[in-house]
Amino acid sequence: MFLPESIGSQEVEAKKRRDAMTRLENWCKELIPAEIIKGVEINIQEVQCGDPECSPVDTSIVLLFDSGESGMIGLPMEAANVTKEFLKDYFPTRDVLEKWHRGEEAEWPPLENEDYSVPLLRFDVGDLVECRIGPDPVKGWLPGVIMQQWYRENNWPRDAWAPYKVLLDDGRKIYAPGDVDQIIRLRRVSQQNNNNTGGG
Questions:
Q1: Which of 70, 192, 90 lies closest to 137, judged by CA?
Q2: Contact partners, residue 9, CB within 8 Å, separation at least 6
Q3: What pTM was computed for the model?
Q4: Across the strands, what pairs with 46?
Q5: Does residue 97 sit in helix, strand or coil?
Q6: Cα–Cα distance between 88 and 84 in angstroms, integer?
Q7: What span, in angstroms and rounded, lies between the C-alpha atoms of 60 and 52?
Q8: How far apart are CA 96 and CA 107, in angstroms?
Q9: Are 119 and 111 in contact (CB under 8 A)?
């Protein structure tokens, strides 16, 4: 049976996704210093989590430098929901971008307290945290519990790891792409009293 209205809505959704990715690419170009933007290729895609219980769609931004280095930025939402401010919070620093441009390795997101080959993380399995899952800096947080340290999915680049896999209180499983307060933080006391759930 031919349903032209469903084809029309699919085309509208596809255009919305293309427009969002174009907007994200333009914002990335604005955030990369002018002296190193030449030769940078920006690849943006929406990826579905391999775990059926995790957040359904993330946006992956890969920056490929003509030096051969590359970096990945993972945003825990669909491209259409990403704001410029949210992208800025997740975007690599100038120092990291310059290292990639020169062909040097640089960690992004930054990892703290390296101990041999595996950096130490701020949170342990079972710790109660809040994860930034939306663009609003005040309301864009959801409570959860750390399920796993050093999470990765099979389809990620060889050296790509997320510091944490988190079980949100609403039942979804997500990953935190960096171990910084702009992405994941200790759960506030008022949240802990409202949601007295732990687990692992």
A1: 90
A2: none
A3: 0.56
A4: 59
A5: helix
A6: 6
A7: 18
A8: 7
A9: yes
